[in-house]
Amino acid sequence: MTAPGGGDEPSPPPPPSSSAASHAMASEPVTPTSALASGQQGLNRRGSRGAGMATFSMEVFDNEVVPSTLSSIAPILRVAAEIEPERPRVAYLCRFYAFEKAHRLDQNSIGRGVRQFKTALLQRLEKDNSPSLAKRVKKSDAREIESFYQQYYENYVRALDKGEQADRAQLGKAYQTAGVLFEVLCAVNKNEKVEEVNPEIIRLHKDVQEKKDIYTPFNILPLDAASASQSIMQLEEIKAAVAALRNTRGLTWSSTFEPQRQKGGDLDLLDWLRAMFGFQRDSVRNQREHLVLLLANVHIRLEPKADPLSKLDDRAVDVVMTKLFSNYRKWCKFLSRKHSLRFPQGAQPQEIQQRKILYLGLFLLIWGEAANIRFMPECLCYIFHNMAYELHGLLAGNVSIVTGENIRPSYGGDEEAFLKKVVTPIYRVIRKVSNIGKQIII
């Protein structure tokens, strides 16, 4: 990172000039170093409005209008906006690091709105450099951000963590902010040729990362272990659905999930489906809540009531299956095909229930990542039909005639394999056919 004002020098290099940088962007890729060397000039223009592009001002652009191709820098700009009243220089360093990261992501500014966004960010850096430097508390930028990181950890992270009723939202936000500050701190240290980060800072960062993994994002249900005391998680029907989902007895896990299992993590049936079929992590989180709520809502409304209420009733699972697979069964009947919802003969009730929940989870995970394909119900039925058959083969331990090995998903179960190898190719074919149809109409 080429941070202005590095080391203990009293007068740092000027920030990138907006007019010079704008000209450079239009002609050739600009780096933060070359922009800094361009000298100070007046702020003679702002980002212009191109076709379909946003206009960015110096005052408001921090994370609301970040171009989609640069979405990864939005958290950095959010942190800069939040801490600016308290430590303007640290906020400046965050924005400068955001600019460098944006430039690495799109050096030629070819993304939609990227050139305008970079120009506005450069203008903001030029405007804030001198005022923020005058308010710097420490002698160097590295010491400034290091001291603020320690202060933030003590005043926010540790204080929130020690509270009797820890606010999940506030804690999650504090952990994210601390993570961004550490990332910027490392970049500033690298620029100022500081050999290594303070060991105490590294210790605090490791503590933040460990706790950050515990407090996972959620929509309605906080299903992580740290939120078991939350009111909604105390409802009997929720407990029953969660317990049924976590019944992974008899399932064989891939080696990539072994470390998490050994740590005692709460892995469930959807985690197993993700490991086998390569679904996205965040999609699994969304559909986990979806499935738990579906089962819990039916479970609590059963007549006569389930006894005990803390154990998921098979009737609730059957009701959800009937509704969810109604169209799929009609599709199979229309094609005179036997459906792929198969269950082991003579199995225990818990094993049958586990198999049913796996089928439900598989369908919801397919639907959750299907994008526009979800508007093609026959296509969804076809995908589920084949993947459910493969799921049955996995659970039954069937052996492939070709390879002589246990049956695995035909496309492999790598990370995000379902999106890359199933959904994306189908979507491309649909788009191609759609474009051909438009040309014929024209």
UniProtKB/TrEMBL annotation:
Q: How does it sit in the membrane?
A: Multi-pass membrane protein
Keywords noted in UniProt: Cell membrane, Cell shape, Cell wall biogenesis/degradation, Glycosyltransferase, Membrane, Transferase, Transmembrane, Transmembrane helix
User: Polar residues composition bias: which ranges?
Assistant: 30-43
* GO cellular component annotations of the record: plasma membrane
Spans annotated as Disordered: 1-49
Q: Which reaction does it catalyse?
A: [(1->3)-beta-D-glucosyl](n) + UDP-alpha-D-glucose = [(1->3)-beta-D-glucosyl](n+1) + UDP + H(+)
**What are the BP-aspect GO terms?**
cell wall organization; regulation of cell shape
Which SMART domains does this chain map to?
FKS1_dom1 (SM01205)
Q: Which domain of life is it from?
A: Eukaryota
Locate the compositionally biased regions of type Low complexity.
18-27
- Which residue ranges does the record assign to the 1,3-beta-glucan synthase component FKS1-like domain? 354-441
In the record, what terms sit under GO molecular function? Answer: 1,3-beta-D-glucan synthase activity
What enzyme category does the UniProt record give?
Answer: transferase
Record has Coiled coil as a keyword = no
Q: Where in or outside the cell?
A: Cell membrane; Membrane
Enzyme Commission no: 2.4.1.34
The record's similarity note reads:
Belongs to the glycosyltransferase 48 family.
Task: State the name under which the record lists this protein.
Answer: 1,3-beta-glucan synthase
UniProt source species: Eleusine coracana subsp. coracana
**Gene designation per UniProt:** ga17952
